[in-house]
């Protein structure tokens, strides 16, 4: 009897963070993978992660449409409630031996509730980190609902233990996203033309002599300022006049603010040095990064993959607040001049090391092995 | 401008645990109470808490029907999901300055999500305790979603702090249920005839020379054994032949098991010494308890109110696992002989003290005062 | 390739109305049955139809929990909305070639919407009849959403055609419930002891020398008078002092009113001649009827099966308003004296014929054959 | 006591169809308007009807977010189910004396169910028409759930009566959209620059010497061909090289197909003569139409307003199937050459009359007056 492991992927970036673990589970002789794709991962306007997943050869056990339109805090809550209802059905039908919930996006708590309320052991990937908005609350609530904790760094492991989880349920596996980065570190050449392959909109920038990459998401609890915040970055990039690839934000309350900021700026300023993409295959994205001069924005990619790959990163604002950083990162506020300065400093920095903070490239296999060997239970009590 | 405090009551026992705080909020010159009654508190077959609430003179701002029939773990999860969707609407409309979620019933996390996702400061009442089933996970997840923690004992306060909450957001107010008990301690006479006033079913037992009270709820994660467990208690009580008032369980996954056990036993054994009630006004219930020989079962009332009132308590099974106990409590397993022995020991015990573990009778006022004086925020970060 | 026919059974009485058709579909060489059991058919307190279905050897493709507690018009609407959401998922997964919705219970429109909105041909069983409450609206709305109409009488066929449906999509198959009645007509002996086999509550009445059967459902649009209405019948029966088997009502807004009326009456009047059942296997129920003196209440069984079997029926109130009747039926208002009189008249009537209004006992096979031979489409336009 | 009339607007075009009736209800001395804005009417990417509604000075009683992302038939069904649940709450709270549901969009049945199941008299605007897809089913199902029918033409009135509705509940009021058109007929000058006022995307076409308007919606039951269909129109327009204003489609299953067709065509063909708009204030839109050479597509505006205004219309495909037409309309299939020919014929036609088929410009007042004077009931029975 194989152990049935049900993983729920609710967004494009979550897929990148779990992909090698999914592969390792699929290939493990004692495990059976039940893959559920849900939420914005199914939607065209958030990059159709589902297409990449199917192209990668995964069989999808269930698709769960649960995103309520509105992109405001109320619809975010209602999307989560709907997710609980739908995923309760799904788990009841699939009868998995364990369910995996990934990290800290708002809708991940739907997975946690639907599993734990049905007495299915819950595995939480990438708990124990620290940030600065609703993700912070969701991540730690996921930890308290989960029975097994597969975290991405030693610091995260310490934090989960302090929160009162049983030591024999907490493992530092590193982050599977680093497994992908590991392959790219070995094969770094930019073997495609980004604009030819992905289209996108905006100017046909001359990127071959070096370019920046920007990825800036709205910060939920600062909903009304999302537009103002992103304009600072847009102005900074526009004034620097360095060729830049810019990625649109995920679905989130406030993405309207950010997206609207970008649209407004494009129309009024018609920036000559920026080309916009909706999304990219994960490997292509990493290749784009490793060959870039600098990543700018507030994506966790700057903290994780870029630390491993040694890509200079300018991290803006509070979103990655207190996540463990490597030497590649410089933090700045939402301030045009500070952003410009930090970019210029980073692209000429010489002391950037490649570091092993979030894993050494073997996380996927470690996760599968722990799932196979650990006895899973849904009974737990705080240790103190 | 009054601070609008929205409290969500989802079940009869939760109302008892918050009633004096609701009154104190209502009467406080700086606060406005927005009372939401939801879930099983609206349903006749769980005791129509809503009727007591209205009789007590509270104005109900919104009623939220959210209980999905089925009484299994799947419907428990779906009820919670539906609760998130409905309460998101309610909070969006009421625009409270803070939302109160009470303790650890499964559906309380719906309140927590609907508030925190909409950036409304969340107040959690009675976090930091320890039990042994899904309540345990829900309680601590509520803590991680909440911004202000009003706990019921020093032990609970220590635990919430250890979990990483900011010290200036954690207050030991005691439990408002003790405020009710305080009044009864001063006025203990049994001033009504239980059977005349509440009807109920079963024999017209002769209770005036002493009686037992039983209240045994299903333990969610032991769903399939709920029936077997309650039969042990029924057999023990039946063999003792002491007049007994027995209260039906709340709505919970498994209540079917417990209720079915009771029904089966009644039909087959026709116990001569047991009278069954669905529910009772809180004050009447406390008067019944304070005049009883012993409380038997797994209700938290045995741990809290009975400790304050000095009522002997036989606590069965794991449901109150590791909650701080007074000298009134003896713990036993699901074992007929052990239950019988423990009851006989308790009703003749002489060393039972009245203790102040869960408050001194002023919790309601303390809670209102803290809500009025504390600056409420929805930004938080774990302290370590 | 077999044609996949998905039937949705949402309540115990609906199962009786479709059972022989389900069997015939299952056995048909060109059809595959996909049976979905939903709503109150899954719930213990409405008679656990699901158990009978499984005992009859049907494989259940999906179970859909969708009943929201409350038993008021709001929860009835919300149950229906939830049903649409859940059944949309179910049909999306099962990919049937046609979906069957049965008759006119409030939640049947959920089946109709979930199928027709997904461009799945919709088959409506038992349209074209006339009654007097929300069922009336639901039934005709189902007709307008449906692509194929399998009705139970010539009168019903005429009515569906008048409503503008294409003549080649309307067939009078009779009602499958008559197929069951046909078997009982041939084998009428009461081969079981009702109280021994089904338990129930109330007096151990002496029924062997003749008895009445009562089945009275709440009428939705007269929600507040459900309790008052049923009390008239209770008083009439109590005064007649003829041994009576009384069946509890279905889930419906107002069932609380009816049930509460019954409970109140039992407690206060302790009727000596009434025994109460929750439900009975369909064949046993028909045997009970065929051997009874008279059926009293407002069940459609009195109009249909009892017409075929020649069982005298006193039909109370508006619920069966304008349904085609046989000579077995007498109609009365909610009036104690009128009910008593009508019962006494019926049990001594000598002119009651067995009539073939709702089919001749071969409906199940007719339905399967039409489904196999008809080309199913989801395109339709009103004919005028 | 004013009669409380609750109208539910779920989409931008529905608002145009009801606006003057809303105003007349608001101004009527015996009526009180309760306006609910729901569904895509709240969403930016479908034109933010809510903003126009508020600019027009209406007070919105409730906003209901209910659109589930996905834009496929399954999410259309689930949106409807969610709408039932949410609107049930809304009506329960508002306690209207009647609810208005408008026309035949898929989600309008949610309004009908939520009202009729709660015994609130339901008023259906614009029943009795005939088209060719899911709208056809929804419209007639709305009729069967409704208690009062306010239809837009004599033909529609005849049809509703044939369907079995009581004659004293069916009134031909004309369509309120014609009231708006009436004002524009009197004041036809194009008093704004469309591109300056509304932006939009595409070429800055030279429209002052005459232009076409295109509005083509996906036809739900032909989901997969939506893209192919719209390409025919795009090619025809592109080849004609007449300046054209093109409006994006509404939210509907398939809008993705249509939108995707438009996007693809723009990228590949870069049409020089087309400018694209998302939406326009209703009066501005009518002004644009009355000054245009021809309307092309499948919008009901071509059948209704354009008949009244005498605007030549090329109606493509089955969407307006069998709706009563004036002399302004020519019908064509999805065929490039036929579309081109029809446009050329229409823009030189000389025999186009202004006709009064769908009202004479006083519908809003008629509707309000009928609502005030008619006794509203929720009891109905089919007449035959």
List the helices and strands and how they pair.
4 copies of one chain form a homotetramer.
Chain A (H helix, E strand, L loop, with lengths): L2 E7 L2 H16 L3 E8 L10 H7 L4 E5 L8 H22 L3 E5 L5 H9 L5 E4 L8 H12 L2 E4 L2 H9 L7 E3 L3 H11 L7 H5 L2 E2 L9 E4 L10 H15 L3 E4 L7 H15 L4 E4 L4 H9 L3 E4 L2 H4 L1 H5 L3 E4 L12 E4 L3 H12 L15 H11 L11
Parallel strand pairs in A: 1-2, 1-4, 2-3, 4-5, 5-6, 6-7, 9-10, 9-12, 10-11, 12-13, 13-14
Antiparallel strand pairs in A: 8-11
Helix pairs in contact in A: 1-7, 1-15, 3-4, 4-5, 7-11, 9-10, 9-14
GO molecular function, one term (chains A, B, C, D): hydrolase activity, acting on glycosyl bonds
InterPro entries (chains A, B, C, D): UDP-GlcNAc_Epase, UDP_GlcNAc_Epimerase_2_dom, WecB-like
Protein name (chains A, B, C, D): UDP-N-acetylglucosamine 2-epimerase
Description:
- Four copies of one chain form a homotetramer.
- Chain A has 384 residues and is of the alpha/beta class.
- Chain A folds into two domains: 3-175 and 362-373, 3-Layer(aba) Sandwich (Rossmann fold); 183-347, Rossmann fold, CATH 3.40.50.
- In chain A, 42% of the residues lie in helices and 16% in strands.
- Chain A is built from 15 helices and 14 strands.
- Chain A has a seven-stranded parallel beta sheet with strand order 3-2-1-4-5-6-7, with helices on both faces.
- The relative contact order of chain A is 0.15.
Keywords:
homotetramer; 384 residues; alpha/beta; Rossmann fold; 2 domains; seven-stranded parallel beta sheet; seven-stranded mixed beta sheet; 42% helix; UDP-N-acetylglucosamine 2-epimerase (chains A, B, C, D); glycosidase (chains A, B, C, D); UDP_GlcNAc_Epimerase_2_dom (chains A, B, C, D); hydrolase activity, acting on glycosyl bonds (chains A, B, C, D)
């Amino acid at each position: 009897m194989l152990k049935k492991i049900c993983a729920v992927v609710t967004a494009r970036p979550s897929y990148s963070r779990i992909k090698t673990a999914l592969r390792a589970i699929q290939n493990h002789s004692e495990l059976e993978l039940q893959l559920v794709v849900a939420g914005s991962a199914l939607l065209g306007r958030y990059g159709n992660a589902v297409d990449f997943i199917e192209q990668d050869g995964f069989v999808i056990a269930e698709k769960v449409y649960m995103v309520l339109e509105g992109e405001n805090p109320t619809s975010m809550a209602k999307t989560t409630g709907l997710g609980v209802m739908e995923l309760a059905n799904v788990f009841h039908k699939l009868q998995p031996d364990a369910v995996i919930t990934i990290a800290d996006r708002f809708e991940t708590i739907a997975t946690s509730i639907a599993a734990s309320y049905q007495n299915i052991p819950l595995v939480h990937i990438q708990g124990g980190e620290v940030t600065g908005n609703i993700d912070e609350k969701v991540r730690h609530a996921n930890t308290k609902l989960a029975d097994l904790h597969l975290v991405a760094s030693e610091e995260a492991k310490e934090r989960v233990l302090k929160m009162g989880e049983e030591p024999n349920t907490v493992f530092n596996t590193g982050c599977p996203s680093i497994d992908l980065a590991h392959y790219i570190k070995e094969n770094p050449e930019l073997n495609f033309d980004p604009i030819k392959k992905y289209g996108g909109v905006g100017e046909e920038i001359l990127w071959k002599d070096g370019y920046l990459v920007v990825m800036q998401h709205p910060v939920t609890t600062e909903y009304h300022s999302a537009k103002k915040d992103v304009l600072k970055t847009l102005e900074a990039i526009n004034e620097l006049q360095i060729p830049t690839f810019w990625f649109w934000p995920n679905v989130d309350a406030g993405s309207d603010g950010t997206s609207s900021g970008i649209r407004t700026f494009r129309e009024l300023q018609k920036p000559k040095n920026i080309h916009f993409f909706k999304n990219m295959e994960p490997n292509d994205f990493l290749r784009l990064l490793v060959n870039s001069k600098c990543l700018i924005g507030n994506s966790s990619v700057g903290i994780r993959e870029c630390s491993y790959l040694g890509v200079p990163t300018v991290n803006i604002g509070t979103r990655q607040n207190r996540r463990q950083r490597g030497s590649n990162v410089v933090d700045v506020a939402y301030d045009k001049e500070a952003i410009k300065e930090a970019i210029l400093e980073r692209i000429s920095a010489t002391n950037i090391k490649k570091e092993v903070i979030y894993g050494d490239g073997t996380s996927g296999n470690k996760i599968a092995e722990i799932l196979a060997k650990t006895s899973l239970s849904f009974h737990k009590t705080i240790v103190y």
